[in-house]
Design brief:
By secondary structure, chain A is mainly β. Chain A has no helices and twelve strands. In chain A, a hairpin with a 5-residue loop joins strand 10 and strand 11. Chain A starts with a strand and ends with a strand. The N and C termini of chain B lie far apart (37 Å). The chains are: A mainly beta, B mainly beta. At the A-B interface, strand 6 and strand 11 of A face strand 5, strand 9 and strand 10 of B.
Chain lengths: 112, 115
């Protein structure tokens, strides 16, 4: 069975500092990988996705992620965070025909 | 574009009653809608997948008679929690997509508390 692990439940960081949110997955077949963001009282919004091709994927709001097949990772990065990036971030993989398996989420807390 | 709404955003009900949650795609036609459940500090768990005009496909371990899903139109799907019990208290999130190859667009969720 496929699974997604987000090791950090919470990541505190100061404004304008870089951040990396970690995501590891387990699957015996090829996967599609996604990062979603959830702001308070809002739905999940797609940040970026890896389907195939270049392993470095750029998304919205200055985020990017790198697919590493050998390490089964898909870490999310941003070189300089803003207060407005404070939110819950979910990594997910596609098990085929849109069935998404989610990680437990990482809460990013950006302080001044 | 691609906005999905849910109603209500929060509901409190007594044990034994039924609760209906609506999921609407506001600016697109959703051929497929998904219902998820999220416990505190846990993953979103897929409950069922519904296609307009056909019966929902439930995930293993999800009671079909407990969680009734209807996808009567291309913009509306409903989840009814029948004879709710306190253990049904959770955060329910829906998503919708325009076609099988499309990204899922998520609603804001509905928090259900059963007393």
């Amino acid at each position: 069975a496929q699974s997604v692990t987000q090791l950090d439940s919470q990541v505190p960081v100061f404004e304008e500092a870089p951040v990396e949110l970690r995501c590891n997955y387990s699957s015996s077949v090829s996967v599609y990988l996604f990062w979603y963001v959830q702001y308070p009282n809002q739905g999940l919004q797609l940040l970026l996705k890896y389907l195939s091709g270049s392993t470095l994927v750029k998304g919205i709001n200055g985020f990017e992620a790198e697919f590493n097949k050998s390490q089964t990772s898909f870490h999310l990065r941003k070189p300089s965070v803003h207060i407005s990036d404070t939110a819950e971030y979910f990594c997910a993989l596609n098990t085929g025909f849109q069935k998404l398996v989610f990680g437990t989420g990482t809460r990013l807390l950006v302080s001044p | 574009g691609a906005v999905v709404s849910q109603h209500p955003s929060r509901v409190i009900c007594k044990s034994g009653t039924s609760v209906k949650i609506e999921c609407r795609s506001l600016d697109f036609q959703a051929t497929t809608m998904f219902w998820y459940r999220q416990f505190p500090k846990q993953s979103l768990m897929l409950m069922a997948t519904s296609n307009e005009g056909s019966k929902a496909t439930y995930e293993q371990g999800v009671e079909k008679d407990k969680f009734l899903i209807n996808h009567a139109s291309l913009t509306l799907s409903t989840l009814t929690v029948t004879s709710a019990h306190p253990e049904d208290s959770s955060f329910y999130i829906c998503s919708a997509s325009r076609d099988p190859q499309e990204t899922q667009y998520f609603g804001p969720g509905t928090r259900l508390l059963v007393l």
